[in-house]
Amino acid sequence: MYYEPINCRALTSKDYLEIWSICLRHIAEKINPRSFKTWFEPIKPIKLESKVLTIQVPNKFFYEWLEEHYIGVIGEGLRIALGPAGRLEYQIVVDDYKKVKASESFNRVPDDNSIDIASKKIKNPFVIPGLRRPKVDPQLKPSYTFENFIEGDCNRLARSAGLAIAKKPGGNAFNPLFIFGDVGLGKTHLAQAIGNEIITMFDDKNVIYVSSEKLTNQIVHALKSNSIDELVNFYQMIDVLIVDDIQFLANRPKTQEIFFHIFNHLHQIGNQIILTSDRPPKDLNGMQDRLISRFKWGISADLVAPDFETKLAIAKAKIKDDPIRLPEDVLEFICYNIKTSIRELEGVLITLIAQSALNNKEIDIPLTKEVIKHFIAQMSDEVTVESISKLVAEHFEVPLEKLHSKTRKRSIVIARQLSMYLAKLMTNKSLKHIGNNLGGRDHTTVLYACRSVQNLMDTDQLFKDTVFTLEKKIRMSLHSV
Q1: CA distance 366 to 356
Q2: How far apart are the C-alpha atoms of 320 and 348, rounded to whole Å?
Q3: What pLDDT sits at residue 243?
Q4: Span 60-72, mean pLDDT?
Q5: Looking at CB atoms within 10 Å, which of 105, 258, 342, 370 has the fewest?
Q6: Cβ 342 vs Cβ 335: under 8 Å
């Protein structure tokens, strides 16, 4: 990609925005959109002096990540914008009033010792030299591990960041790690899995998990008993602090004030902070701006609703140690009907197994249907000719209205005949009703369509597999919300 070289004319201090814009356009072409959003959108260009562009990054770890992973592509962008003499200077925000600077020239390859930023750690004044720190109860559930946290597109970024943290807590770009998503998608599981992995790998690390509600209650009690210093000192000695549901600190200014000092101290000495929330930092109403800005220092990773395959893998993992086995069609039925919450999925599995064990009932689709009714708001009573034709049209990627038209185009005819066949097979509707719902055709047309589909199934294995796949999808979508 060619850009008009801005360095062909005399540069002024006002050109820093344009220079950085040229760099970003080049970088955006070289890396994936998610990485660009995470690592380059937060950067702010500050000034341009004598072909030295200054950019501001949120923290030291952000800078280190750029240097480790993107130094090459940044250098290419700067050379395009400023020529071979171009240089970059970082301005790293440490807190609201102090900044650290580091410069880098792009006419050479940087070495590991070229820059040293804020390398001095602040010593904890509450740890007495020569005395061993007491181990604390981490308040973690041993069952919350990475092994049983199933990876999918819905959680890959958050899980990968968590694994990186577990290998090097505090010494990475993900500090803090801010995990957000709707209820029941595994935020607590992932946060605690990180803690459990760190404890396994680092025997000397003090890890603690606390809900925001419990933290608030501790602060209230400490204020009443005049022991707030002891509480703050305790949390400031923790190596890895995990706070769940941080959104519940909203509109609690005193609690936020105290947590701010805990957060600042831990971050400054390089200890790891992990937070979870039901929304991203920018949507945390009732939270102090300075806290929100700190929540953005590391990386925000969202958890979204899993797709069908991920839900099925999660369901199988949940019951792998249970002596009662669930048929595959039952598991698929559950995963089709539980749309979002993993917590609801787990609830259905537990209830279904309990119903089977206590009432000596076979686990099948009818029993599963009865259980699921307690978890979802509404279920349809039967599959319809309309729902079948819609699913077939989606599968063959043809407009639904084409199935009702007079066209004799082969792809449309096959889809229409297959809709008639499946409607006859899976509903109790008359041939006349089926024909009327597919373009006003008579019952003899429906009979002919059914025979044609059966003949194709007998001679074409690929077509037969397609019919079975569609039939399975229809059965699984039966009674869905």
Answers
A1: 12
A2: 15
A3: 95
A4: 76
A5: 370
A6: no
Residues 102-129 as b/e (b if ≥16 CB within 10 A, e otherwise) read: bebbbeeeeeeeeeeebeeeeeeeeeee
Please tell me the distance from the alpha carbon of residue 206 to that of residue 238, in angstroms, as a whole number: 5
What residues does each domain of the chain span?
6-105, 156-303, 308-359, 385-477
The average pLDDT across 47-60 equals 82
pLDDT level of residue 166 (50, 70, 90 thresholds): very high
Q: Is the pLDDT of residue 345 over 90?
A: no
What does R_g of the chain's alpha carbons equal in angstroms? 30
Q: Does domain 156-303 have CATH number 3.40.800.10?
A: no
Q: 179: which 2 tokens?
A: 């995990």
User: 194 pLDDT exceeds 90?
Assistant: yes
The Cα diameter of the chain in Å comes to 93
Residues ≥6 apart with Cβ < 8 Å to 327:
363, 364
User: Average pLDDT for residues 414-434, to the nearest whole number?
Assistant: 84
Q: Quick one: pLDDT band at residue 61, thresholds 50, 70, 90?
A: low
Q: What are phi and psi of 438, to 5 degrees?
A: -125, 55
Task: Give the three-class secondary structure for 277.
Answer: strand
Going through 58-134 in order, the beta strands assigned E by DSSP cover 87-93, 99-105
Give pLDDT tens digits for 81-129. Answer: 888 888 888 887 644 333 444 444 454 333 333 223 233 332 333 333 3
Q: What is the pTM of this model?
A: 0.53
- Distance of CA 138 to CAs 9, 241, 259, Å? 61, 9, 19
6-105: CATH topology is: GMP Synthetase; Chain A, domain 3 (3.30.300)
CA 395 to chain centre: 28
Q: Any idea which residue has 């660009």 for tokens?
A: 36
Q: Which residues contact 290 (CB under 8 A, 6 or more apart)?
A: 96, 260
The residues, ordered by sequence, that sit 6+ positions from 20 with a Cβ below 8 Å of its Cβ are 43, 45, 53, 55, 81
Domain 385-477 CATH superfamily: DnaA protein, C-terminal DNA-binding domain (1.10.1750.10)
Tens digit of pLDDT for each residue in 285-332? 999 998 998 998 888 988 888 877 788 888 888 877 777 778 887 887
Contact indicator for 260, 291 with CB cutoff of 8 Å: yes
Q: Where are the beta strands (DSSP E) in 191-298?
A: 207-211, 240-244, 272-277
Return the pLDDT at 125. Answer: 34
Determine the Cα–Cα distance for residues 38 and 146; give it in Å rounded to an integer. 24
